[in-house]
Specification:
Chains A, B: It catalyses: (6R)-5,10-methylene-5,6,7,8-tetrahydrofolate + NADP(+) = (6R)-5,10-methenyltetrahydrofolate + NADPH; (6R)-5,10-methenyltetrahydrofolate + H2O = (6R)-10-formyltetrahydrofolate + H(+). Two copies of one chain form a homodimer. Helices cover about 40% and strands about 15% of the residues of chain A. Chain A is α/β, with parallel strands linked by helices and about 300 residues long.
């Protein structure tokens, strides 16, 4: 049996196109484009690359992109003041503070300062709470929502399926479990303290791996025909000296002989995150303007 | 093997005594007793009984008890006005709006209006969100927190244990799963759409049943030595005609031959709920006054 490879890159492009198609309608109704502000503190090279990609994707979708860059020495109060200005700025629908922040800044305090209606990352406790209680008016974190979209694209109705989420972070694992529960999966959350993880994984129709440990999940752990979503992006030594390559949390080549479908790394979940960020910004813009959210995004 | 019966009534009495013991210290520091306000709309007999019990337990613990009763015909705005007054009342640390509310009132809107710092039921989205992201400054719903206390009393450290929660309500199932995850259990949430529920239950060291279906969980479903917390309170026909009796979601007599420990119905989880409500009120009072929360409650 050969597994289907879930093409996250292609699906992300389709989602971005759907978002871009909906922008003119919003602009006509609201008299302005949707706006996304990204705040970067310091010069971390990886974060700089992410912020640049986000900015490009935002303008490519026809949205307004604002970038605020603060030096690594910026104080928490300086950052909070930027957040307050963006909260008050009517042309800004989404605010994303690029994480991680320098150690002297309290991330939780910064996230708490973002207007929940503009929290397109879905990290504010109000949005986490809405997700937990099933209130669909909240913003949902981009990566797990992207994973869910890929799962539904692949499997259709997920109701009654056994799902295992490996990892319990606030950014991926916990919201992923909430989303799968809302789809009426029987959901198990596994993590570093889980005993016999291979047995837990083996009974799952759906496996979402989000632990950040290269190729930890082996093919033999996976049930025949399972759908596997690999959130891990781990850099490891490559075949040639001095070269590196990216691998997921699942041993991809090993898994291919067992599963029904799997996301590759790279090209699986990764591209979905920015696409969902644009989607969340478009949704936030409609909600803020009191406009109905377009179907199918 | 005979199972241990977890005496929730006795543990609840101990908790109430610990809360009562801490009240004079609070009163000395704050210049007032902790205060709990309970709001009842309409004349539902069961709700009236609950409200009366809560009031008695509150004063028995040395706290101030306020009761607001509105007619069943009260409008949502009238109820919201009561909530606003209680939010602003400095002697009120906890506000509990007795559910269910009459059909013409939007429960979610009423819960959203309660100051999260006074939301001793833990139902506000801010408190649900804090529980979801692991922020311990929030209020945790009384019934699942009471279940967790009984589990820890019985089993000590829960880390690495397999736990199954049957039921996914916002009031019990979902917060229970969050609490068990925070204790580093491997947590599975099962519900009406779960396939092969008996198999799911059979692999669990800890079973929390919160579905409201009389004696649904059979003894043969339970792993040898499991600890079972039965949240269900179901009234069924009794042995004599015209008589009724209370049973849980677990077939208690059947389970006794399999499990390591189990809560009875009545006398298990039930008495814990009011005790935790008093505990939450005491905690809210300390947090509102900027006083350190006493150890061991």
């Amino acid at each position: 049996m050969t597994a289907a490879i879930i093409d996250g890159k292609a699906f992300a492009e389709e989602l971005r196109a759907r978002v871009a198609d909906a922008v003119p309608g919003f602009a006509a109704a609201a008299g302005r484009a949707p706006g996304l502000a990204v705040v970067l503190v310091g010069e971390d090279p990886a974060s700089s690359v992410y912020v640049r990609s986000k900015g490009k994707a935002t303008t490519a979708a026809g949205m307004l992109s604002l970038e605020h860059r603060l030096p690594a020495s910026a104080t928490e109060n300086e950052l909070l003041e930027v957040v307050r200005l963006l909260n008050a700025d009517p042309q800004v629908d989404g605010i994303l503070v690029q994480l991680p922040l320098p150690a002297h800044i309290d991330e939780a305090a910064v996230i708490a300062a973002i207007d929940p209606a503009k929290d397109v990352d879905g990290f504010h406790v109000v949005n986490a709470g809405k997700l937990a209680v099933g209130d669909r008016s909240g913003m949902v974190p981009c990566t797990p929502l992207g994973c869910l979209m890929l799962l539904k694209e692949q499997r259709g109705d997920l109701s009654g399926l056994d799902a295992v989420v490996i990892g319990r972070s606030n950014i991926v694992g916990k919201p992923m479990a909430q989303l799968l529960l809302a789809e009426s999966c029987t959901v198990t959350i596994a993590h570093s303290r889980t005993r016999a993880l291979s047995d837990v994984v083996r009974r799952a129709d759906i496996v979402v791996a989000a632990v950040g440990r290269p190729e930890m999940v082996k093919g033999s752990w996976l049930r025949e025909g399972a759908v596997v979503i690999d959130v891990g992006i781990n850099r490891v030594a490559g075949a040639e000296p001095g070269k590196t390559r990216l691998v997921g949390d699942v041993d991809f080549a090993d898994a291919m002989g067992h599963v029904g479908a799997i996301t590759p790394v790279p090209g699986g979940v990764g591209p979905m995150t920015i696409a969902v960020l644009l989607r969340n910004t478009l949704v936030a813009a409609h909600l803020r303007q009191g406009l109905p959210v377009p179907e199918g995004i």
